[in-house]
């Protein structure tokens, strides 16, 4: 087996940029958090609204940060140079962020390293997002009557759908607060990253299994997604939420850079973990993320 020399020490670069983006994303997620600051009995006070906004922002950043730090620490374990997370601020409406990323500056040496780096992010983010979502759901309040005209309806992750039927039998709509909102964002980010296409986390996992698996999963995913988009076009009055994501995945397709070494197998443990990641993806998946009444 070829031996790879350790990479040169990585010095923190542009730390000010990481901090600036973190502060900006904290501001935009706090602004978005005010959209979660209401109740079925009327609007919150300014103090309650501010607390709700800060709660949403804090837990959203915690989930995104956990996801990216999972990747970062896995890179450090394999001595692969990587940057700290870059948080991406968004419009201060509803979500308030476009997520976060790290930049890997070194060569990924083999399939095991690729698998571990790809899997570490979604698992770390999911480990934080799931309890946040559950606690937020436990604090939800049933809504009576129809949503007001122009209201926003969030689709439930599949795990939330199951829990809602158990916790709120017969209830159609729920008012959910900022904690659930942060968990919902975490579920959305985790599921989007686990689509087994291109160089998404799920695509990396598929490629680590084999290039053939990567190509097969890409084609199955694109076909399934176009079917979902067509169904949503026919069944709802809204533009399908996954239309843009389908176009992005179509552009990515099965393109993936070669690794330094692609011979050594993953082993049964990592293959079992790949099945667990599939379960996580299905748990987080939101069939209709958002719609407008």
Explain this structure to me?
With 293 residues, the protein is mostly helical. It has one domain. It is built from nine helices and eight strands. The chain has a two-stranded antiparallel sheet. It has a two-stranded antiparallel ribbon with strand order 3-4. The longest helix is centred in the first third of the chain and has 32 residues. It starts with 14 loop residues before the first helix and ends with a strand.
Question: What is the fold's blueprint, element by element?
Answer:
Layout (H helix, E strand, L loop, with lengths): L14 H19 L4 E2 L2 E2 L2 H32 L8 E4 L7 E5 L9 H28 L2 E2 L9 E3 L3 H10 L6 E2 L2 H16 L7 H9 L1 H25 L7 H10 L15 H17 L5 E3 L1
Antiparallel strand pairs: 1-2, 3-4, 5-7, 6-8
